[in-house]
Design a protein that fits this description.
With 81 residues, the protein is mainly beta. The strands form 2 sheets. It has a 4-stranded antiparallel β-sheet with strand order 1-8-6-3, with no helix packed on it. The mean pLDDT is 92.
Length: 81
């Protein structure tokens, strides 16, 4: 089993801080590649971050209302590859 650490993507040059507003999957939940994983909001943009891989969400590293920046870790997904 491989573990994949999902990070906050770059949402634009001027977006430095985003807030976690909703987790679409709970720890232990299954996701497919491309499924909605977490929603974040920033001053100029709202963004739904998709899962980069299919597997099981094993750990959430950022909670609701946490402020995150591009590159910060969000969660860990365990996949079969």
């Amino acid at each position: 089993m491989a573990q994949h650490r999902v990070k906050v993507p770059v949402a634009g040059e001027s977006v430095e801080q985003m807030t976690i507003i909703e987790w679409h999957v709970s720890p232990g939940g299954q996701v497919s590649e491309g499924d909605d994983l977490v929603s974040v909001e920033a001053e100029k943009v709202d963004l739904v971050i998709p899962s980069p891989v299919g597997g099981t969400l094993v750990e959430v590293l950022a909670d609701l209302d946490d402020e995150v920046s591009p590159g910060d870790p969000l969660c860990v997904i365990e996949s079969g590859s």
